[in-house]
Amino acid sequence: MEKEQVVVGIDIGGTNTVFGFVDRNGKILGEDIINTTFYGEIEVFVAALYEKIMLVKSRLVFDVEILGFGIGAPMGNINKGTIEYAADLPWKGVIHLAEVFHRHTELPVIVTNDANAAAVGEMVYGGAKDMKNFVVITLGTGLGSGFVVDGRLVYGADGFAGEIGHTLIQPSSDRECGCGRKGCLETYVSATGIKRTVLKLLANSLVSSELRAYSFDELDSRRIFEAAKNGDVIALKAFEHTGAMLGFKLADVVATTNPEAIFLFGGLALAKEFIFEPTRESMERNMLSIYKGKVKLLPSELSTQNAAVLGASSLIWSNRE
Amino acid sequence: MEKEQVVVGIDIGGTNTVFGFVDRNGKILGEDIINTTFYGEIEVFVAALYEKIMLVKSRLVFDVEILGFGIGAPMGNINKGTIEYAADLPWKGVIHLAEVFHRHTELPVIVTNDANAAAVGEMVYGGAKDMKNFVVITLGTGLGSGFVVDGRLVYGADGFAGEIGHTLIQPSSDRECGCGRKGCLETYVSATGIKRTVLKLLANSLVSSELRAYSFDELDSRRIFEAAKNGDVIALKAFEHTGAMLGFKLADVVATTNPEAIFLFGGLALAKEFIFEPTRESMERNMLSIYKGKVKLLPSELSTQNAAVLGASSLIWSNRE
Lengths: 321, 321
Prior knowledge:
The structure is a homodimer of 321-residue chains.
Chain A: E1 4-12, E2 16-22, E3 28-35, H1 42-59, E4 64-72, E5 76-77, E6 82-84, E7 94-95, H2 97-101, E8 109-112, H3 114-125, E9 134-139, E10 143-149, E11 152-153, H4 191-204, H5 221-229, H6 233-257, E12 261-265, H7 273-286, E13 296-299, H8 307-319
Parallel strand pairs in A: 1-4, 4-8, 9-12, 12-13
Antiparallel strand pairs in A: 1-2, 2-3, 5-6, 6-7, 9-10, 10-11
Helix pairs in contact in A: 3-8, 4-6, 5-6, 6-7
């Protein structure tokens, strides 16, 4: 009997690493998870991950043929198969991930950053199926971006294209970024960024707010979303400010690559119109007239739960076509 | 005798329109210039331009066969053959340039923005011959940009990619742009932009400067360059401010498409280190560490007059291959 062809999509996160066996249609035949923080050595991490992948494979209801491994990771570099100076991972400096993987397998291993993987996922399985020019913005702990031009992901000369989370909102900002600078877009526009904005608003204003009950550590974008739904003035203002800054930057993105659509993905995007409306308003207001009303701002059509795995797997699928 | 095949490359600028007869090897067999600002009606402009082209053709030392017209113009749109809402040209709204041209000729007419044309020129004949990922910034009356990704020019979904001259330096700027907004990059960084900065510096400061002798209309980037060479404090400060703002925006450009090099082209770029040094310093200072020291900031290797003409002509040549 012919084996089903699958790709292993792997999403390496600061806390967990998720993987899944993905068929050509984006169906996940089996998945599992390992704890990233548990492995201080990259060699041990990869060995444990590979073993777990093989274990899950052996338990699938039918035999599969693995075509390759697609890996999304913070600061993942497609040219070199490396992860470089990722702040939130246990392994510091330049990590030769593909090389270490190849001690276990001769199959193709493709590494890229998680937002690039999400962009390819959107193109292969999501809302960008019929689009040639679009951008995906991931709003999680940080802000990632993946640019697709003429149907191809933009990697750039060194494989580090699409880091608009680290463009500056203003040179005089006080807000510290994990990258060591101040005022990066992601310090304002991300699940963490909106938390920081809430704290600043709570500090400046005397208006009552249910968000005064939470510590910085307790606060998250879901709680701010809930407060906004209750009409909480601070939460509403925080979404407004966050959207205004995102829209301001997206107007620049439009003037650079003139995409057909921009997709918002990740935790903060789940707040729907609370984040989409002010973003759209600010983007339209700041855009040059030739672009006005032409660029769609859309929610990602990939489910948050397995988008990163699908995106990572699509690196291999799209490479085979 | 067989006629030599040529393409007419045309560069429509805010001040002058330059054209040339370009052979397949990029040799310019004849060229001339008309004053853009002189023609308030697009029909009259095209008629005068076409007549001049035919006049120059009749004077070439041997007979040529024209294969088509490649045109670079601000806000030129390759999909529609239009110029749309160009801030620095005499004709407002949507100008159907290719259509008007076709009243005179049935040959192919291809329109794109002047910076895109310059980028193709740089790739085919200039310093980007061996590069797959680079950006060309044109610093003339306005600021144009052309992005090359994976060896191909980025046009975007509507053919309007590469308008970073109309991204905003800051939302609160007072400086009016020809596009109807305030604070666009080109209101600071362009031959006109630096003039405006000089006037502001002359207004604020009491320091003596040879630039106090010139009216706004008399001033140009060449005069400011001459003053800088003489150690004029105002001129030096103007270049410093201009470079700081350009570098700030180029750091964003790097984070978006991660180019191998950025080429500066046009009148203001002729001021060499007076503009390159503060731009490079500001770009490096504002960049994320993974990019630092990796992106070359280079002068265009094409002569100011020829690059856009060559680039415009290559639109037709590359279309025939």
